[in-house]
Amino acid sequence: MAFLGEVLTLTVLGSGTSVGVPTIGCHCEVCASPDPRDKRLRPSVLIRYGGRSVLIDVGPDFRQQALRARIDRIDAILFTHAHADHIMGLDDVRPFNFHQKEPIPIYGSEETLAVIQRVFKYVFDDGMTESSRPKLAPRVIDGAPIHLFGLDFTPIPLRHGKGNSLGFLFGRAAYLTDHSEIPESSKEKLHSLDCLFLDALRHKPHPTHTTVQRALDHVAELRPKRAYLTHICHDLSHQREEETLPPHVRLAYDGLEIAMEIGP
Prior knowledge:
20% helix, globular, 7-stranded mixed beta sheet, single chain
């Protein structure tokens, strides 16, 4: 169970865009950079508290991320949406089933779970199989807070181009990735947080993502104590970009760990 004042640790497993950085076949300055902060796997974060681990999204790099972060258990998975860079590592949760001996609950919108159940049809078939497959328990997010092991994860509706995605608010922190717009009704829940993650793909506008300047506008409006920009493409050099940002706004990077107290 989580209690007020208990420390929560958020680990950035991946801070990159859908193709990752370096990008295949690209030899630009950032893709060739020796700075480890410019090596960006697909976007995902892990939240640990009270001996529990909650994963937000499980992209195609998940096995590599899990080994690097030494993840030894997954108690629940929350999905922001069903794009490939957020769901395609789902088969790699099987080892956690081996150790934990029980299904892992997965949470997503009705639309997101429908896509997952179609893409991973073999996982949800009732028929016999000669090989192992993930053991998962789908649970629909209906807009209400999700109570997980003493901590509420409140879904935050976002616009992602012509589609939708979800962010999640937990304690005094929120993780928002893959958004082109934050509706006003969602902003009402995001003011004055201790820690806020925001999509910031690049400087050039994109139909389904936020620019760095737009993310900074959100920071100025929502006034978090600290903010991290994520879902970053190879247009942004970590060191050079951070030199231009306000002190309380940083670029996320793979392996970043942030500790914070669980508050009301």
